[in-house]
Amino acid sequence: RRNLVYVVTPTYNRPEQIPELTRLAQALLQVNHLIHWVVVEDVDRQTSGLEKFLNKFNLQYSLLKSVKPKVFDKVVGKPRGVGARRASLEWLRLHQFTGVVYFADDDNTYDSDIFRQMQRTKKVSMWPVGLVTELGVSSPIVRQGKVIGFYDGWRAYRKFPVDMAGFAINLKLIHAKKNANMPWVAGYEEDEILRSLGITLNDIQPLASNCTEILVWHTKSAKNNWSKKAGNLKTNLEEST
Ligand code: UDP
Ligand code: MN
């Protein structure tokens, strides 16, 4: 079977959910022959009739559910999407799928070309992500085709200071390293899973023309309290003659 890219998207019910997923679905449609979309619904945030929405698109998908253990509600920084990504890894391992896994949050913006490129991931591939931290970009630093370090606005105590949207993993590694997973610690999800795969800088394939192009952006929707604003019903019907 062809090597598919399993695109894992944690998602939860809110007014922006369908617009965000529509944008992502349309990026995936450009390359639908090489994608299996793994949409993972956060059931803590209520169910949202996603099946019907997903069926509109000519996309191969699976809809999974994830629940966050209550004890993590009080954790500082509140890890977001972690339960979903953990559930997807469990599912990918259970079915022993081959191909590549990529963690694609619902609110980011993706140039379809990055999906084409990541299909060739041998172990781990990486590329820049735009609009992340106050530096505006997070990127591997590449010299002579090799990743030698990282440029990122939040170094913290990370060996791999990268954004979730900036790497893909060949599933062979996920199956080989059975305990590799994402922790319930906000900010350390990327570093922890990459460390647990036991990779070195040499194993990282730089994509996006040796990390000189931005094909993924960490976009965020402006926060709005829609329900409050909908309180006063105003139409222009009275004005019409
Ligand atoms: N998410 C989720 N449940 C939540 C909050 C977020 O499933 O309670 C998902 C969200 O849809 C997104 C991912 O987790 O795909 C990351 O969340 P968000 O974009 O809010 O995080 P940020 O980009 O601000 O780190
Ligand atoms: Mn986001």
Automatic annotation (TrEMBL):
It comes from the Eukaryota. Its main location: Golgi. It is found in: Golgi apparatus membrane. Pathway: Protein modification; protein glycosylation. GO terms for molecular function: galactosylgalactosylxylosylprotein 3-beta-glucuronosyltransferase activity; metal ion binding. It catalyses: 3-O-(beta-D-galactosyl-(1->3)-beta-D-galactosyl-(1->4)-beta-D-xylosyl)-L-seryl-[protein] + UDP-alpha-D-glucuronate = 3-O-(beta-D-GlcA-(1->3)-beta-D-Gal-(1->3)-beta-D-Gal-(1->4)-beta-D-Xyl)-L-seryl-[protein] + UDP + H(+). Its cofactor is Mn(2+). GO terms for biological process: carbohydrate metabolic process; chondroitin sulfate proteoglycan biosynthetic process. Keywords: Glycoprotein, Golgi apparatus, Manganese, Membrane, Metal-binding, Signal-anchor, Transferase, Transmembrane, Transmembrane helix. Its EC number is 2.4.1.135. Belongs to the glycosyltransferase 43 family. This is Galactosylgalactosylxylosylprotein 3-beta-glucuronosyltransferase. It comes from Allacma fusca. The chain holds residues 177 to 417 of 460 of the full protein.
